[in-house]
From TrEMBL:
The RuvA-RuvB-RuvC complex processes Holliday junction (HJ) DNA during genetic recombination and DNA repair. Endonuclease that resolves HJ intermediates. Cleaves cruciform DNA by making single-stranded nicks across the HJ at symmetrical positions within the homologous arms, yielding a 5'-phosphate and a 3'-hydroxyl group; requires a central core of homology in the junction. The consensus cleavage sequence is 5'-(A/T)TT(C/G)-3'. Cleavage occurs on the 3'-side of the TT dinucleotide at the point of strand exchange. Belongs to the RuvC family. GO terms for cellular component: cytoplasm; Holliday junction resolvase complex. It catalyses: Endonucleolytic cleavage at a junction such as a reciprocal single-stranded crossover between two homologous DNA duplexes (Holliday junction). Mg(2+) 2 binds at E67. Mg(2+) 1 binds at D8, D139. InterPro entries: RNaseH-like_sf (IPR012337), RNaseH_sf (IPR036397), X-over_junc_endoDNase_Mg_BS (IPR020563), X-over_junc_endoDNase_RuvC (IPR002176). It is found in: Cytoplasm. Gene3D superfamilies: Ribonuclease H-like superfamily/Ribonuclease H. Signal peptide: none annotated. This is Crossover junction endodeoxyribonuclease RuvC. The active site is at D8, E67, D139.
Length: 171
């Protein structure tokens, strides 16, 4: 059994999603958003850090997965996103969690089947894969999708290493 925390970082709204993986089975444990008021940036970063730290203490995940920074049209927005992402990563590293990073296209490809999926498609597939009664909020759905991506890719790596071991024994 593995618990995975996914984070969709933002300076005003940071989505989080927590799932449990048992073999190929994925179970929903929780999700939501860390909201920061229209405060100065250092205070927002403090709230992101504290919020992620609280989630880690509550759910005790073994893995931390976060979306990579993408090139935004606005350099100031990209910088703020990077700072929020850094605050979340520091919260994970301070709790000795291994950090895994996934590109947005990779997450969409893993969850929806196409890297060009929109937010509604991601929400729908997260709802379907985790058997949720309703659609999670968009940022929480993105965070859950990041956690699902980590689960899928880690299963794939385990399968590859098992096949490699089986192949090496056949020599």
């Amino acid at each position: 059994m593995t618990i995975i925390l996914g984070i969709d970082p933002g300076s005003r709204l940071t989505g989080y999603g927590v799932i449990r993986q048992v073999g190929r089975q994925l179970d929903y444990l929780g999700s939501g958003c860390i909201r920061t008021a229209a405060e100065d940036m250092p205070t927002r970063l403090k709230r992101v850090y504290a919020g992620v730290q609280e989630i880690i203490l509550q759910f005790q995940p073994q893995f931390f997965a976060i979306e990579q920074v993408f090139m935004a049209r606005n350099a100031d927005s990209a910088l703020k996103l990077g700072q929020a992402r850094g605050a979340a990563i520091v919260a994970a590293v301070n709790q000795d969690l291994p950090v895994f990073e996934y590109a947005a296209r990779q997450v969409k490809q893993s969850v929806v089947g196409t890297g060009a999926a929109d937010k509604l498609q991601v929400q729908h597939m997260v709802k379907t894969l985790l058997k949720l009664p309703g659609h999670p909020q968009a940022d929480a759905a993105d965070a859950l999708a990041i956690a699902i991506t980590h689960a899928h890719l880690s299963q794939h790596l385990i399968k590859l290493s098992t096949n490699k071991l089986a192949f090496s024994y056949k020599k």
